[in-house]
Design goal:
Layout (H helix, E strand, L loop, with lengths): L3 H4 L3 H14 L8 H7 L24 H5 L8 H9 L3 H19 L28 H23 L20 E3 L6 H13 L7 H19 L2 E7 L7 E7 L3 H13 L2 E5 L21 H4 L3 H16 L2 H8 L4 E3 L13 E2 L9 H6 L9 E2 L9 H4 L5 E17 L3 E16 L1
Parallel strand pairs: 1-3, 4-6
Antiparallel strand pairs: 2-3, 4-5, 7-9, 8-9
Length: 429
């Protein structure tokens, strides 16, 4: 197994990570993936996110110019400028992408489509051809990738791994007298803005597909913001907690993944609203800003009250983001019983393919569910009847090994026995 941290040490290896990072962007430089993998001898197992974890390998010894030059031509002009402006940020983008892929596979491990990734040396998107259609699954991919980059960048800022940002010390002091801001708050604002500029710069069209992609990108980022929570530490004699020091902390990405999965389940199929031409392009922009949802208002106080205004003010100073903001999104749910989507909702405009048919599997390079484990007693989607697409399943036994009867030996080690037990699993035919 090739660990990303081993790729970040010599300059030639850092080029490989930079190139793979480029290919992780959903619609960018797909045709170069095969060449890049061959150039840098990156094995297929590099993208096996069930075993790999984000690298967190930001080398202080590396010269930033050497880590940013290779394969820059495969990024958009705006992405290159953003990476050059924020040295070491590209490593956080890699971390965020790997984090998103791993969480996507966790959320869909018991469904027909389980967020599969394909080897880097076959060309095309890492997620396969599913991105060619605007279905629910594609909506989740866009949202989770955008959220992953925002989360990783915000974390990298507060831990000092990106030198152009730091902890968020610009929090408005509350009127309460029993607590005050202190410590190191995760810089979620910087993470949001970076992800918006880096990810959304790819979506340059103004037809329905590009607008749907932007909506789903925004939904992912919004959940990173709304899931930020206030943490406090008490001060006082004998734990009296007469004064508290508080800071804002990102939720674990697992929490964000759970929220996005809920939005996936409740996603709305949409069509273009008023102001769009029959071809799907916008004829005019709407000046009305959609109202924030109640869940936005109930999030951490300083973010829910000040976040949109601070972001809008920053965007007005940056031409590239301002152009994006002029394209107000105007969707109409196909099902009239569905509400108008908010900024935190996922949308799609095409139905999902039938993942049980061989034609679908071939068309979208999906391996199907053959060989997948199922639950013989469940009537849900993870049950063998649905998971195996009515093909039936086989039951097999296997030996499971685990550590047990651990004891501490002075000094200083822990010794454990290896216990074996027989287990049963069901495998789709």
């Amino acid at each position: 197994m090739l660990n990303p941290s081993t790729l970040l040490t010599p300059p030639s290896s850092s080029q490989g990570v930079f190139a793979i990072c480029s290919c992780l962007q959903m619609k960018l430089c797909f045709k170069y993936c095969r060449t890049l993998a061959q150039d840098y001898d990156i094995s297929e197992s590099y993208l096996d996110t069930n075993q790999i974890s984000p690298s967190n390998a930001y080398s202080e010894k590396q010269d930033s110019s050497s880590s940013l030059q290779p394969r820059m031509q495969y990024l958009t002009k705006k992405q290159r400028k953003l990476a050059e402006k924020n040295p070491q940020s590209i490593y956080a983008v890699v971390d965020g992408a790997l984090l998103a892929i791993r969480e996507c596979q966790h959320q869909f491990e018991k469904r027909l489509w389980n967020c599969p990734t394909q080897p880097s040396n076959v060309g095309g998107s890492i997620f396969g051809r599913i991105l060619n259609i605007g279905c629910r699954e594609t909506a989740f991919i866009y949202s989770i990738m955008s959220a992953g980059v925002a989360h990783a960048i915000a974390t990298a800022c507060s831990t000092g791994r990106i030198h152009t940002c730091s902890c968020d010390y610009r929090l408005e002091q509350p009127t309460d007298e029993d607590w005050k801001w202190g410590g190191c708050s995760d810089n979620v604002k910087f993470g949001y803005r970076f992800s918006k500029q880096f990810i959304d710069s790819i979506e340059q069209g103004e037809d329905l597909r590009f607008m749907v992609n932007r909506q789903n990108n925004e939904a992912g980022r919004r959940h990173v913001v709304s899931e930020t929570r206030k943490e406090c530490k008490c001060h006082g004699m004998s734990g009296s907690c007469t004064m508290k020091t508080c800071w804002m902390k990102l939720s674990s990405f697992k929490v964000i993944g759970d929220r996005l999965k809920e939005k996936f389940d409740g996603a709305s199929k949409v069509d273009a609203g008023n102001g769009w031409e029959s071809t799907g392009n916008r004829a005019s922009s709407s000046s009305n800003r959609p109202s924030r949802s109640s869940s936005d208002k109930n999030s951490a106080s300083y973010l829910s009250n000040n976040f949109e205004n601070s972001i809008s003010s920053k965007n007005r100073k940056e031409n590239d983001v301002k152009k994006i903001n002029r394209n107000k999104l105007n969707f109409v749910p196909v099902d009239e019983s569905h509400k108008i989507p908010t900024k935190k909702d996922m949308v799609y405009f095409q139905e999902s393919p039938d993942f049980c048919t061989t034609s679908t599997n071939s068309k979208y390079k999906f391996e199907g569910t053959r060989g997948r484990e199922c639950n013989a007693t469940s009537m849900e989607i993870d049950g063998c009847q649905l998971m195996c697409c009515s093909r039936g399943h086989e039951t097999e036994t296997y030996i499971h090994e685990k550590t047990c009867r651990c004891s501490f030996e002075w000094c200083c080690k822990v010794e454990c026995d290896v216990c074996r037990e027989t287990r049963v699993r069901n495998i789709c035919k």
